[in-house]
User: Which sequence fits this backbone?
């Protein structure tokens, strides 16, 4: 219950994991490795952030959107393995950021997710390899989408 | 021969796996995990779908292109491990969709691949974690490119 | 010291691995699998290639940028495991190429990294599954970003 307590301290209640928006599953497991589906900045089944960073959205808003994606990722992991205390390592984070050409602050946007994982799990478990990149268009015009590979007990 | 029969029922003949268009290999294996190279909607060595969805291409055409990519992925797996009956789990599917800004139906396009994998392998093996995203430009102006991680016996 | 000698023959001195530009780590390991963070074409802490291929940059420049990313990836691996002789397989390479719409030679750009890995490690270890795709915008306006999954001893 260590991670659940940490989340409470941070004022975060895990949502019910958002349903995939199409024909796939939220998590697939191979041995101790979890592959997660792309997470969008959904709250209560509704996208909270749409539009491009550098256009309708600021980098700060993008960063909040990335954190919401990360919370949804934790919800999906939690439903899959039953407890976030079984997370051994956040291995790889991909952050796709809907961007206008000319906005090149994707790393700062992605930090909204990266810093959250380290805050929740600590440096050893929560730190991760990461790629962040811009894209001209995300599903449902979402501002951010993230993608994870996670090691579990 | 279970999967081969299923493919026959679906009226699908596995093509010869398309040759990589550059300096890489179609599949690399680590333990029971296969990493696949990006698959394009090639038929008989020729790209069947070029152009952007929301522009020259409709979402329906994109979805067919995604299915062709998926068929080519199966061909690559089959040549690598000798039989699709050895596939234990489609772990992760990435779908990159050449899109005009403003087209945000990437999930429906990606379903062309996702639903095909479930149709061929059934829910337990064929369902997968997935990310779908838009991009402004794919190699050779392809409409869709897919990417897979697969667990095998 | 086999790989170090090979690099010397190629006239390449491994740089100090570039520091991540944000809140993440260069490499995270799970069992024998290394996940690498996105590598940019940095030399001595400074981006060598910015701008889009097909616009300010030619495919040839993009290819050199991809090779620099690959050199930085080797530096990151080397610092993580202590010797490149422990690399057993380059499993998966993703190459993201900042592109103007209409430039579709991403495979040739990506070859700058792919051919380098094969040159350094030989075909069996160095060949890899690969995806290459365009994007409208990369962090810090980099021309290329690469991403690796690697098997080590």
Assistant:
């Amino acid at each position: 219950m260590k991670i659940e307590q940490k989340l409470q301290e941070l004022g975060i209640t895990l949502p019910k994991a958002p349903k995939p928006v199409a024909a796939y599953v939220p998590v697939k497991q191979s041995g101790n490795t979890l592959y997660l589906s792309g997470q969008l900045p959904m709250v209560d089944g509704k996208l909270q952030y749409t539009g491009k960073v550098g256009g309708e959205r600021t980098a700060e808003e993008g960063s909040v959107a990335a954190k919401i994606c990360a919370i949804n990722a934790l919800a999906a992991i939690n439903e899959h393995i039953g407890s976030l205390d079984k997370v051994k390592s956040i291995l790889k984070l991909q952050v796709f950021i809907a961007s206008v050409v000319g906005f090149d602050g994707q790393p700062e946007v992605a930090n909204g997710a990266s810093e959250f994982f380290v805050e929740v799990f600590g440096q050893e478990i929560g730190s991760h390899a990461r790629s962040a990149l811009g894209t001209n268009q995300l599903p449902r015009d979402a501002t951010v989408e993230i993608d994870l590979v996670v090691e579990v007990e």
User: Anything to note?
Assistant: DSSP finds three helices and seven strands in chain A. The first strand of chain A starts at residue 27 and ends at 30.
